Amino acid sequence: xxxxxxxxxxxRVTEELAHPNSYKALYHERNGSVPxxxxxxxxxxxxxxxxxxxxxxxxxxxxxxxxLEYRLGVDIEHLYSHLVTQIQAGLAFSGFEEGLAAxxxxxxxxxNAEMLRMAEDRAAKFIERLPELRRVLTTDVVAAFNGDPxxxxxxxxxxxxxxxxxxxxxxxxxxxxxxxxxxxxRMLTEMAHSETGIDIxxxxxxxxxxxxxxxxxxxIGETCIIGNNVKLYQGVTLGAKSFPLDNDGNPIKGIPRxxxxxxDVVVYSNASILGRITIGKGATIGGNVWVTQDVPAGASITxxx
Length: 305
What we know:
Helices cover 47% and strands 10% of the residues. By secondary structure, it is α/β, with parallel strands linked by helices. The strands form three sheets. It has a five-stranded parallel β-sheet. The longest helix is centred in the first third of the chain and has 26 residues. The protein starts with a helix and ends with a strand. The mean pLDDT is 90.
């Protein structure tokens, strides 16, 4: 093929890809000086958060009781700073500036300045939740240890088990979700999904002493509600059965559509629990079953022979 022919192909392809009809559903234009959310910075947030919750296991392993308070202070400051930039980026990306335009004009503030204030407020509220997040994650470590006879100590659980890596990020993301931070919670949980093979939507509500044995392939949907002392095994799906449509045939979003698991429920590997149903307190769901109706408290659901 001649050089001229190559040039013609490149020119034509460039023109086609640059045409608005080609990219209009896929293109995002930056809002002024606010960058897009950064996967690299979000990964730093995950690493800082883990080092704060589990000092000595993540981050600097050489810390001791003498240096712990200083190191925690430094890490918390860095975490706050990163959170502010990423929350502001999430607000800008998600179109908050459109809703702020009239407000900012009325208050003689720039839109970016107001989004920065909102980001700082949300980041500070997240930092305030760190002690409670550590307390709850401690219960998850205990549940994982008590639920696995192969585990030798808590350190092994914290260092090695994918469920703790996943739950740490999920619980961070869930706090941000409750603070109405857009986009960032989903990015965080998808990063953890890639790392662990466990897919938990940040909107799901999960109680204390929660664990997932092995973990790979577990899916927990946005509107799931899980009580205390619940244990899942690998491959479990807590999903939606169907998607109701509006008058135009589009899925209706934001409605409860995932299961409720009450306290002390155990779900064995590869079970699928679908729809807005309730699995009663203390129930056991056997492996490889398909559940679409309520299960009474204390019941045991298994495959028929």
